[in-house]
Specification:
Structural class: alpha+beta
Helix content: 55-70%
Largest sheet: 2 strands, antiparallel
Strand content: 5-15%
Strand order of the largest sheet: 1-2
Shape: elongated
Length: about 260
Amino acid sequence: RFGQGSNNPSYTQGLVATEAKLTQAHAEKSATFDQMAAQVMSLFISAANTQSRIQNTQQAIQRSIRLQNYIISRTNLGVSEKKDLLQVDAQLKSRQAQFQNLQMLWQQQRTDLNRLIGSEWSQELDPVIERKLQSSNKSYEELLQQAVNHSPELMQIKSQITFLESVIQIKRDARKSNIDLVIFVGNKTNSGDIATGTVDESEMVGGLKLEYSRSVSRAGLDADIYQAQLERNTAKYNEQQIIESIEYGLASLLAEIASGIK
């Protein structure tokens, strides 16, 4: 073992572990962005649905008013009974109350949407969902690969596996006994007084020696290695589970899109 730089295994594995941690941090950031995007999408769809319900309720109120007027005219003629008028009045009040509740719900959703997109809380919005569906020219395998490559969860798992493998390698290196080759070079100087006068001599000297070091706590290192291996195996299992979840989710989505296009 000649140095502590790029040729040193512990140094190299340390760099790998650090890079894995950075990748994991980036994946966590991406996951946060995905969660925020999903939250905005969910709220947008809910708001669009609320707007649709408001329009339908307005139309229902208009129909109830027309029906009410019709029954009043028929009651005056003695054709309709008072109970018919009471029934349509109750229906109208129920729809008006539903309309007010939907209006309050929409106000809250609009405020939440504006907050998420960074607009003024009172900014007017008109959430509309495009109903037109288009099929993709990409194959299932291409779409799956794209989904896998951009999955923050998979990115986190992969970086965790890389980090644990680095830990295992570092612990294995620490478990080994080491023999270090030590090289030393210097000057040897002799100076002083002698019987015939003074002497001042200098010469270059050098040498080699071997230093042996043995791991003193192999049991503890073995336990650390075993624990890291267990965590790595668990991470690999979770990785496979995520991939399968993406596969089934993509297949279900493509089938739903194909059904909508037909």
